[in-house]
Specification:
about 150 residues, alpha/beta, two-stranded antiparallel ribbon, about 35% helix, about 25% strand
């Protein structure tokens, strides 16, 4: 990773530069003050999804879900557990496919829940179906080896 990490604020969409050594210190957006890297799941809209998945230096795992989806709701606490384990090396976020169908169509989502790991505009891997936290973490760690190696 570079000396400064480029991160998109998932709240206001502002691009931020954060010293890589400070990613674990709960850095805040210079524009709106929201925390940029936290051990929790962030909500994405279409604009923040596109900016974060294309431009950010920190990997982001996106959960494509819908409120009517039982397995999606069942997996939500497991996804939140994975966020606490993976932060500050990976950000976890979710996108409501019902509210943003064009984004899920562009991402080629065929069924939900679906997880896609992105890093600097590149898709590193996909995982389909509801999964426990340890499987989500394992998937990310394995996919991240392609970045490190």
């Amino acid at each position: 990773m570079t000396e400064n990490a480029r991160l998109t604020c998932t709240t206001c969409g502002q691009a931020n530069r954060v010293p890589a050594a400070r990613l674990g210190d709960l850095p805040k957006c210079g524009s709106c003050g929201e925390i940029l890297v936290a051990p929790k799941v962030m909500e994405l809209d279409a604009a923040s999804h596109d900016k974060a998945t294309r431009n950010d230096d920190l990997p982001i795992l996106v959960d494509y879900w819908a409120p009517w989806c039982g397995p999606c709701r069942m997996m939500a606490p497991e996804f939140a557990k994975a966020a606490t384990t993976l932060s500050p090396k990976v950000r976890l976020a979710k996108l409501n496919t019902e509210d943003h169908p064009a984004v899920s169509q562009r991402a080629g989502i065929r069924g939900i829940p679906a997880l896609i790991l992105y890093h600097r505009g590149r898709e590193l891997g996909r995982l389909a179906g509801a999964r426990p936290a340890h499987e989500i973490v394992g998937f990310v760690q394995k996919a991240m080896q392609t970045v490190a190696g």
